[in-house]
Amino acid sequence: MAATSLNAPNAPLLQKTHQTHVFLKPISTIPCQTSAKRFSISCSATTQDRLSVQSQSQDRVFNFAAGPATLPENVLLKAQSELYNWHGSGMSVMEMSHRGKDFRSIIEKAEADLRSLLNIPENYAVLFLQGGATTQFAAVPLNLCAPGDSVDYLVTGSWGDKAFKEAKKYCNPKVIWSGKSENYVRVPSFDGLELNPNAKYLHICANETIYGVEFKDYPVPRNPNGVLVADMSSNFCSKPVDVTKFGLVYAGAQKNVGPSGVCIVIVRKDLLGNAQEITPVMLDYKILADNNSLYNTPPCYGIYMCGLVFEDLLKQGGLEEVEKKNQKKAGILYNAIDESKGFYRCPVEKSVRSLMNVPFTLEKSELGAEFLKEAEKEKMVQLKGHRSVGGMRASIYNAMPLAGVEKLVAFMKDFQAKHA
Ligand code: PMP
């Protein structure tokens, strides 16, 4: 593209540097792309310099959505800068063959970075799949047990319940404990659980996104040959986890580690190869592992985005550092709720409150619509609780900056002062 054409109406925000088209960063001093203004700028700073200038630009909202959720701004900007021409390849990651060397380097780096983040040992396979976590509700029983086999489900929220219901089609699952009658506010003591000594696996949802109940410790299956399986969709990579406690972990990417369309499965290799006969080829972990997640065309761009997030988490100092930040954010929000003298209330037992999803109600529930409207005016969006529980829910995943939580807390105090 000739440089002069950048001045044409509707020209894309591109600058030509050394044969490489670089999308310019929408920093606050520069009109952003959504404002449809054009500008000229000299391009002496490297893209990386510009990527590190800011933590949150003026034209973005604080997005408290449960997923798809906010992504790290520097990751989005890096993806933007590489969108048009990835590393001088002359094409976007979206246009690459999934079997070419460039995409292979992307998926291999994503896997290596995830392995070092979570300290995943060699005897576990890492799979980048499609179909969301919901598909894993079926893939888990199809791969880990025969049709008549018994398995246990510990149900602390509606995702665990959905996983149980799906498993009924493929094996013989039993709910060994459910918090449904109490409206899912706690995790039971593990001592009293009536675990089946023959269960092939024990399934938990490590963080129930809707109710905000998070396991802080994990139960051990009673069957010495059974394994613990966890749906970690909404707290994946939010803190260090000892993967060796689990036979299998799965997580949809769209909360903490990327866009929707990618689901990550971490599975102990000795569990592979026993899929039920009816298992679709696309759900057979052994086939997927033998082909390094490339049995068919994988969600290439989503995997690339996850890779950028993993790289960013490593740069932040790994999951110990990430957890500290998450504890700080959640701490100030739960404190604000608990110190509101009942104006706001979080129903979840304190010991298992989620660091990721903070549900709360307003004592004067009739103020809910106004709360949401006023918050939106302040550029804080998606605070409405899940339709099945009502109230509010602030999802404060890794990528939610501390400033976003501080702003929400200040807003909540102000709202209370006006309406108490
Ligand atoms: N499990 C949990 C804990 C979730 O939060 C979700 C999605 N919100 C799912 C499973 C379903 O994920 P997906 O939409 O990717 O199938």
UniProtKB/TrEMBL annotation:
Its EC number is 2.6.1.52. The keyword Amino-acid biosynthesis applies. Pathway: Amino-acid biosynthesis; L-serine biosynthesis; L-serine from 3-phospho-D-glycerate: step 2/3. GO terms for molecular function: O-phospho-L-serine:2-oxoglutarate aminotransferase activity; pyridoxal phosphate binding. CDD domains: PSAT_like. PANTHER family: PHOSPHOSERINE AMINOTRANSFERASE (PTHR43247:SF1). Involved in the plastidial phosphorylated pathway of serine biosynthesis (PPSB). Catalyzes the reversible conversion of 3-phosphohydroxypyruvate to phosphoserine. This is phosphoserine transaminase.
